[in-house]
Write a structure and sequence with these properties.
Layout lengths: L1 H51 L2 E6 L4 E6 L3 E7 L2 E6 L10 E8 L5 H15 L6 E10 L2 H4 L1 H7 L1 E10 L5 E11 L2 E10 H17 L1 E2 L6 E3 L4 E4 L4 E4 L5 E2 L9 E8 L2 E11 L5 H15 L4 E10 L2 E12 L2 E11 L3 E10 H16 L2 E2 L11
Antiparallel strand pairs: 1-2, 2-10, 3-4, 4-5, 5-9, 6-7, 7-8, 8-9, 11-12, 12-13, 13-21, 14-15, 15-16, 16-20, 17-18, 18-19, 19-20
Length: 382
């Protein structure tokens, strides 16, 4: 019995030791398990927070624009011609439209130009027997400093808000809101188009996207140089532009150099430089063919002049063409010639009365065109 009692006593003592050892080991392990669990929870929270973020960043660097848009707005086009991006909006199956766009162009002197243009468009539309759309808002408003911040209010100042109500043949209405603002000598036009059912909700999202927008000078490849020249850095040529004309973002990717002059209602005087790979060029042969080709393309066109003229050390074919666009008489002065590396077309398109006033200055700008070899510093030529 004594031995049995001793055995039980020893076993009990060993059990106590075992429990104490387990307790000590657990006390050292649990803090590490706790830390690991905490880290896992933090990572999970971060991952959830990232996936739950209702907005994502849309950045188009060449166009100098970034916005934060709802995750559900699908990016379908970016960096194409003068359009920075297109976002597709979730819509019902029968909805006629559903998109948000951002477009760039050379800025007018003032936003009032577009306000008056929108008003005129509405007045013309309402004269139709069955108007297809109507202007419901056409208002200039200062940027809200609380929403946009002091820096952007100082840079941008105001914006133009235009709202249109459209109706299709089947009488299904849809709505369009255009918001224009000027920054870095560039006009940014943001457009929301959506059906009636989604308009109010998307309009609020659209406004939040605009508040998030950050703009910087777009990459045009143009650089102002001494002597009044503007250089196209990517294609290594330069020329002067008429007084008060503004080089800027072109209407499409084929235009290597673009500048805008005066605005006349719906028409803005402009300069475009196009180029193609170098190939044989005979201005005298082209002089025989081009007038007829212009008439085929535009039956209203009148080829007033078509002459071979000097272009630096080479020859160019210069044409002056009068035509009509809507209510405007338009004149185009164009030169075509072969350069060192490319064939060029340089075209001024102006309201006809303005062309008569500045024709000599336009030709001086054409004469100033110069190519800059890659191995040559621009300042040695310009």
């Amino acid at each position: 019995m004594a031995e049995r009692a001793a055995g039980i006593q020893t076993a009990g003592f060993q059990t106590i030791l075992f429990r104490r050892e387990v307790s000590l080991r657990m006390s050292s392990v649990l803090p590490r398990l706790g830390s690991l669990l905490t880290a896992m929870l933090l990572l999970a929270d971060a991952a959830y927070g990232q996936s739950a973020d209702p907005r994502r960043k849309v950045v188009v660097e060449r166009y100098g624009i970034s916005v934060r848009a709802p995750q559900a707005w699908e990016l379908i086009t970016w960096g194409e011609n003068d359009r920075a991006f297109v976002l597709r909006l979730p819509q019902d199956d029968e909805s006629p439209v559903g998109y948000v766009t951002c477009d760039l162009s050379v800025a007018p002197d003032q936003l009032e130009t577009f306000r008056d243009r929108e008003q005129t468009n509405d007045e013309v539309e309402q004269q139709r027997e069955e108007p297809r759309f109507r202007l419901t808002k056409n208002q200039l408003e200062p940027l809200d400093q609380e929403k946009f911040g002091t820096e952007r209010v100082a840079e941008i100042g105001q914006r133009l808000i235009c709202e249109w109500e459209h109706r299709r043949d089947n009488d299904v209405p849809w709505f369009e809101q255009r918001i224009r603002l000027i920054s870095h000598d560039t006009l940014y036009t943001f457009t929301l188009a959506t059906d009636e059912a989604h308009y109010e909700a998307y309009r609020l999202d659209f406004e939040e996207m605009l508040v998030s927008a950050r703009v910087s000078p777009p990459h045009t490849g143009l650089q102002k140089m001494p002597g009044g020249y503007w250089m196209q850095r990517d294609f290594r040529f330069a020329l002067k532009v008429p007084t008060d004309w503004k080089p800027g973002f072109g209407p499409n990717d084929k235009v290597l150099f673009f500048a805008a002059g005066k605005t006349h209602d719906k028409h803005t005087d402009n300069l475009m430089v196009l180029a193609t790979p170098s190939r044989p060029f005979d201005p005298h042969e082209l002089k025989k063919e081009l007038p007829e080709a212009i008439k085929r393309q535009d039956p209203q066109a009148e080829v007033a002049e078509c002459n071979v003229v000097p272009q630096g050390e080479r020859s160019a074919l210069e044409t002056v063409v009068h035509t009509r666009r809507g209510s405007h008489q338009i004149t185009t002065l164009e030169r075509r010639f072969r350069g060192q590396d490319r064939n060029y077309e340089i075209k001024f398109t102006c309201e006809s009365a303005e062309f008569q006033r500045i024709a000599d200055e336009l030709r001086t700008a054409l004469d100033s065109f110069v190519e800059i070899p890659a191995s040559t510093k621009p300042k040695t030529i310009l």
